[in-house]
Amino acid sequence: MNSALFFCIFLSTCINICLADTDNLQDTCPTATTGKQTVFINGFPCKNPNSIIASDFKSSKLSSPGDTDNFLHSSVTFNTAADFPGLNTLGLSIARTDLEVSGFMMPHSHPRASEMFFVSTGVVIAGFIDTQNKLFQKTLQPGEVFVFPQGLLHFCVNNGFNSAVVFSVLNSQNPGMVNIADAMLEPDDDTLNKLVRKIKSVAALRSMHMAFKMRP
């Protein structure tokens, strides 16, 4: 009996070790810029420790707005370990979303990461859909945060009268992006406007309901 119990504990420990993410074996591991890739690993090779500098841990990529002169009036700029060396092995990536008035980010998912969505300026509707097809949606003001769970379909739309800027942190250095909307929706103004109107109407109804509940 004791032997069987010990074996179960040992087996459980081994499974947990196998499933756990690999921890860093050194303080830092900025991405080494290489030419032609000859070795393929789950991540990026590290720079020589003797050549690591403070600039490896700084990026200005998200300081400028993205190009929103497109059909959706929106832009997403990702910053991953591929172009921000200091992120390598940290399990993080960051992004900036720019939304013009009525700008919209089509529903998409990140198969390898959850996303913390922070509104810097503007008013943004953000939401996601779980595996039971239940919608979770909120209107966010500047300084407010929303979370998109890993792998779930999510979206955002500018619900204000000015441009909106959102910054995101994702818990993977390569979160991936599955843009399901491209395969499901025709890229035309009529379809987009219908989808945006539906999202905004749901948000408006919820706001009215909350206001009614708060009345004395």
Describe the structure.
The chain is of the alpha+beta class and 216 residues long. The chain folds into 2 domains: 2-51, no CATH class; 60-213, Jelly Rolls (Sandwich), CATH 2.60.120.10. 22% of the residues lie in helices and 25% in strands. The chain has 3 helices and 9 strands; from the N terminus they run H-E-E-E-E-E-E-E-E-E-H-H. It has helices at 2-19, 180-184, 189-213; strands spanning 74-79, 93-99, 104-108, 115-121, 124-129, 135-140, 145-148, 153-158, 164-170. The strands form 2 sheets. A 5-stranded antiparallel beta sheet has the order 1-2-9-4-7, with no helix packed on it. Strands 3-8-5-6 form a 4-stranded antiparallel beta sheet. The radius of gyration is 22 Å and the shape is elongated. The relative contact order is 0.15. Residues 6-11, 13-21 and 205-214 have low confidence and may be disordered.
Quick recap:
Helix content is about 20%, strand content about 25%.
* Computed CA radius of gyration, to the nearest angstrom: 22 Å
The number of helical segments is: 3
Query: Quick one: how many beta strands?
Result: 9
User: Can you write the helix and strand succession as a string?
Assistant: HEEEEEEEEEHH
Query: What is the number of domains?
Result: 2
Largest sheet: 5 strands, antiparallel
Identify the CATH homologous superfamily of the largest domain. Answer: Jelly Rolls
Mean of residue pLDDT? 80
Distance between the termini: 65 Å
CATH architecture of the largest domain: Sandwich
The percent range for helix content is: 10-25%
Q: What share of the residues does DSSP label as strand, in percent?
A: 25-35%
Stretches where pLDDT is under 50 for at least 5 consecutive residues are 6-11, 13-21, 205-214
Principal-axes geometry comes out as elongated
CATH fold annotation of the largest domain: Jelly Rolls
Binding site for oxalate: 110, 115
Main location: secreted
GO molecular function: manganese ion binding
Signal peptide: 1-20
